[in-house]
Each structure stands twice: as structure tokens, then as C-alpha cells.
Amino acid sequence: MNNESTSYYTSIIKSPQFTFLVGKDRTPMTIHASIVQGKSDPLTAMINNGLMKESTTGVAILDDVDVDVFGGLCEHLYTGRYTTPICTANDSEKTYPEDKKVIRSRFSWIPYLNRRAMTSTNPRSPDFNDNNMRHAQLCISYYLTVSFRELNFDACRCASKTSTPDIIFHARLYVLATRFLVESLREQSLASLHRDLEQLIDKTSDIGLIIDLLHVTYSLTGKSEPGGGSALRELVSHYAASKAPELSKHAMFRELLEASSDIGTDIIMNLTT
Predict the structure, then answer these.
(1) Model confidence over 125-141: pLDDT tens digits?
(2) Which domain of life is it from (predicted)?
(3) Structure pTM?
(4) Which of 141, 99, 107, 102 is nearest to 252 (CA)?
């Protein structure tokens, strides 16, 4: 560590501390005030401007934020990265009472096609014998899978990698980063979500996980964010569109579409453009 880095961290440690009461239990979480400078204008104003109640008391209440997610924000502010939590759910198969059946892969050809797409610079469409609606659906799903893999995040430095990532955490952290305008974390959480969804794209059984991701994304975001549009919605709807033939068979997904027309609109746009 050079002298400049040492001076930077020394100035952080010497700065006043500020406490957030996080989650429904209002768990105290303390950071150094100077860590937010140049990284988040809303947090800087809350902590340092001397006009807001929080800046005079040194305490802010965030009872609508999960402790783990806020911890990811703090880790990023201090280190430039965050730790991807491990998903402990069994994703080999899931039973949903609405459908009264166990969801398993019905398209055994998808893993083969995905592997070929990863190694080919000019992937060709799957060669099916039947020329019907099913054929068209599977071809569209295949090409959306390929185009999802090809999305570019400009070599953004991702969060730590794990073999069983909690992808919902990335989405929730993106939402918090958007709320506090931490642009570096928005970019990192989006890139990390894309990386980890790529790991799951061959797993056609975990419909529940996709539905949960759609629900979190569309319930916590709007159509427009700073800079226009919603990058999170764009990414998640693209991924869901690649799984449309499977999703459409399940009651939980149909109920989600009835609750949010935005989801259906965005998926349709991915399927038709």
C-alpha cells in the first residue's frame, strides 16, 4: 500500500461515525462519514449537510432495508466490491402447490445448444424436424439465450463468485444502490447478476427462482431510473423471455403476469424485437 492509499484510509478512519438503524429490528450499523463522499450524494447529504435531522443526530432509520443488503452496500463503499451470498435453497427440483407437481427440465437439448453457443462465434439455429409453433418457441428461446450470454458489461469488476449464488441479493442490492445513487454499485450488482444468471441458464428446473427474481425486480423498481429506463428490468426480462416456454406452463407465473402488466409487456418486447 502506497502513501496515498494510506493517507486515504487514515482520513476515513479519522472521520466521524454515523449510525444507521437497519431493518425491522433497527439493527445499528455504523460507518465512517467520509466513506460516502464522492460516491453517494443522498448519503452525503444525510450525513454531512447539517440541515437534515439525520446529520444533526448522527443517526438514520432505514427500517425498510434488509441488514444483509445494507451490509453489501457498506462493503462496497469501503472495498469497491461485495460478497455474493450463498443460496441455500435446493434448486434441483421445486414443488409448487398451485401446480401440484414437481418442476423438472423438459427440454433436454438446451444444455447442448448452450454449450455450442458458448464456443461458436456464429451460432446456428437448432435443427428441428417439425415446423410448428413449438419449433418457433424453442428457436426464439435459443436465440434469446445466446443474446443474453453476449451482453457486455465493459469488464465491470464483479462481486465475489460462488457456485451457488443468491441472485436475488444482486437485484436487491441494485435497488438500494439506485436509491442512494451509488453508480459504481449499480453497475457492479448488474454485472454480477448477469454473470450468475449465466451459470443458471442451463438449469431449466428452477422456475420458482425466476419468478422470485421477476417479483423482486418489478415490485421494487419503476419504469424509469436515473439515466432513463430500468437496467435491472431490462436484464431480468431478457432472461425470463429466454425461459418463456417453461414459464408459461405454470400458474405462479400466470398469476405474476396478472399482478403486473409491465412484466408481460417487457417479456413480449424481448420475444418480438
Answers:
(1) 555 555 566 666 778 88
(2) Eukaryota
(3) 0.80
(4) 99
